[in-house]
Amino acid sequence: MSFISIKEAIAKGKGKVSIRGWIHRERGSNKIKFIVLRDSTEIIQIVFPREKFEKQWEEIDKLQIEASIEVEGEIKEDKRAPSGYEISASKIKIVGESNEFPINKDLNEELLGDRRHLWLRSRKMTSAMKIRSSVMFAMHEYMHKNGFTEIEAPSLSGAASEGGSEVFETNYFGKKAYLTQSWQFYAENFIHAVGKAYAMAPSFRAEKSKTPWHVTEFWHFEVEGAWMDLLDDMKIAEGCISYAIQKVLKENETELKAVGANIEMLKKVKAPFKRVTYEEAIKKLNENGHKMKYGDDFGSSEERSLAKYYGDNFVFVTNYPLGLLKFYHGEDPKKPGTGTNFNLLAPGVGEMVDGSQREPDLKKIVERLKKAKIDLGASDWYLDSRRYGSVPHAGFGLGLERFVAWICGFDTIKDAIPFPRTPTRIYP
Ligand code: 4AD
Ligand code: MG
Fold first, then answer.
1. Please, which residues bridge with residue 93 across strands?
2. Residue 427 domain-assigned?
3. Which structural domain, as residue segments, surrounds residue 284?
């Protein structure tokens, strides 16, 4: 038998086909057995009449969900069947039997988490992982097309970067080491070599927060470019996001439907995205009944509300007060006291991207560090980026799982990563 995928078989639509996969559903009587088979591409119903399979009937009758089989048969259109087609089987080979599969629709989140390695076989998860893969690939493609070099930083580092309290510490041959929280410090140095750089890599945050939008290990898409200003930075962010969405719409229609994504909403995404300042955003919130003062930080519920108030679409919020920003964000000379920074907010999710034009001046950075009582310690090498030919530069970080969850319309990023790590889960 020469096998084709179920999707290919459906595209063929008639004649003899050979397919293989895992049993998704089964039912039958002592005269006929119906099996819905799945592979990574689709599902299809297969009919086994007993009279054709008398010799193998006992084995066929015993088949359970998730057993693996190879089948040959005639495919034809059948509007009543799950994918609109049905195969009338002429041959079957049972490849791997299955015990009673420990996944069913009555399992709670905790048990599904324990059995994550098996739950990944579900249509929802398979489809989500395919969408994730397409998104990643599209982002790589976009960056290469725009002249960025992919370059990695280590995951093990001698010092923390984004903030001390949220860092995982580990024992490195008797010395302390930390799991990286961001690629940025490395990037701000090597852009002096490669000019425009990006990476897609795991970042780690020891945050105890159990929100649907946090995991302790997430995939971080980070970008940094020499000679880039805030507007260039935002253009790359919105360009890359729209490109990835277009690509997924083109290539993953089946998967988008399987996860129940809002395809019409995805089609509406077009760069440029709306831009507002932090000050305007505060006003907008207060007009809608929130009680915020200038200087307050947005929580995720304010962020989600803002995306909703601004047309239920992506919105860039720029110029946060410096007091809310890290020492490396630049100050806007046109709006002193505010940053050349942005957060990109997504409806239903909140913050999805965080970026800025960086402060290029060593003296100003040193002042900011002093004011915030931060001692860079073992990270002092970072400042070499400002000591040897500092240039204007900008960059951002995007949480891949937040992006994928938003595309799929999920209400948690845990379904946008194969094996989510949370404060209460480190296995499987
Ligand atoms: O806002 P963050 O902490 O910014 C940085 O790390 C910068 N160094 C990025 C840069 O400029 N290169 O993280 C960036 C993004 C957030 O907007 C969010 O989407 C995601 O990373 N993120 C998380 N995603 C899932 N779980 C977590 N615990 C996350 N923490 C941040
Ligand atoms: Mg942030």
1. 70
2. no
3. 116-416
Q: What is the block-wise mean pLDDT of the chain (428 residues), using blocks of 10 residues?
A: 94 97 95 96 96 96 97 97 95 97 91 96 96 98 98 92 80 95 96 98 92 96 98 98 98 96 95 97 97 96 95 95 96 97 96 98 95 87 96 98 98 97 94
Find the 143 Cα to ligand 2 centroid distance in Å. 22
Tell me how far the alpha carbon of residue 418 lies from the centroid of ligand 1, in angstroms: 19
Let me know whether 176 and 225 are in one domain. Answer: yes
Residue 146 lies in a domain: yes
Task: Give distance in angstroms: CA of 111 to centre of ligand 2.
Answer: 32
In a domain, 425, yes or no: no
Query: Which amino acid type is present at position 36?
Result: V
Cα 92 from Cα 343, distance rounded (Å) = 55
* Closest residue to atom 18 of ligand 1, CA basis: 399
CATH number at residue 228: 3.30.930.10
d(CA 191, CA 265): 36
Q: Contact at 8 Å (CB) between 121 and 68?
A: no
CATH number, domain containing residue 51: 2.40.50.140
Entry pTM: 0.96
> Does residue 122 share a domain with residue 88?
no
